[in-house]
Amino acid sequence: MSALNKKNILLCVSGGIAAYKAPELVRQLRAHGANVQVVLTRSAENFVSETSLQAVSGNPVRNSLWDKSAESAMSHIELARWADCLLMAPATANLISSLASGATPDLLTTLALATEAPVFVAPAMNLKMWDKPATVRNIHQLKTDGAIVLGPASGDQACGESGMGRMLQPEEIVEALNNHFSATTLLAGKRVVITAGPTREAIDPVRFISNHSSGKQGFALATAAQQAGAEVCLISGPVNAQTPLLVERIDVVTAQEMFDAVMAQLGRCDIFIGVAAVADYKPEEVRSQKIKKSAETRNSSLKLVENPDIILAVTQHKNPPYTVGFAAETESVIANARAKKRRKNLDLIIVNDVSDARIGFDSEENEVTLIWETGEQVLKKASKELISQSIISSIAQSLSGVEPSAAL
Ligand code: C5P
Hints:
Largest sheet: 8 strands, mixed
CATH topology of the largest domain: Rossmann fold
Oligomer: single chain
CATH architecture of the largest domain: 3-Layer(aba) Sandwich
Number of helices: 15
Helix content: 25-40%
Bound molecules: cytidine-5'-monophosphate
């Protein structure tokens, strides 16, 4: 049975050309057993008719905060409470801007502010509008505030151009919602510890050794694990990323600090996911004064010593959690990852090919292969959020004894 069965979905349609897909979206949601109510903005009515949405949803369609008969049947606050989720599809740049700022110019945005349910946003707009700093800022704000942004996709646009900004197809949106609702109890009762970001190893008071890790993948996994019902502790190196909602965050700088923070958590940890790009080496000596450019330092070299291997220490613990490592490889990707999995005694290793600039470090998307002892699973290129949801559901399956036995 679909996880959407009997779920109350409030579909909020704003005025973009992709609104013509709204009736099909409603049809597919209902085919999964969901109850759907639709709210339109005034401009959406230029693209899709109230009558057709009423017919496919089987419910009256609402478009105004000031409709007395609709309000007396179910007030907007009751409607916001009724919803198990709000789905903004399509979400125009204008709607996204209102949502990001908390403005409530109409019924739809008022509902978004009044609800405690998760809010899904499926943007649809011209590619130039999608790229504008204002939109980038607003989307970042929405994600920070806990909204789940679905897409957009790249492709031909109604305006004749081609690029990012197309709304995801109805079936992709329905799949994302289905994944969300099937995930909410996957890791209930589990405590998950995740390391993320880089570490910094000081050379002197102003210089350090580090790497390009942005922390995005680790933070997205923390969000996905929390949404799957887990209690999550995120141990992060220095990154510029907002703490996911309801996640405990411990900030560290060096590999040794990260090691100490992880060890302190091991008594209460069911799943450990090492996403951090931990510096393998640190300078043997940290100078107390800034090293000056001089004849003496011109030909000097830096002596390095090894940092502790955090994940190895986790798997060597007397009572190890289910342990997941990440491997960023540039050559013989799968073979190297498999060797690393054995060497570190991991339950699962997740590998990405960082020689591919479209994915991995500091990018918004990733494409990974999950390698267990008995099989592999490839997760095709997608946002780090969607990849994280898939990883979490695969980990949950593996914990319950189901591991893929062949490449999927
Ligand atoms: O750096 P390497 O490729 O060995 O990283 C593989 C895995 O080991 C990653 O999950 C990383 O977080 C973890 N690691 C660690 N401590 C280190 C080095 C790596 O936990 N010192």
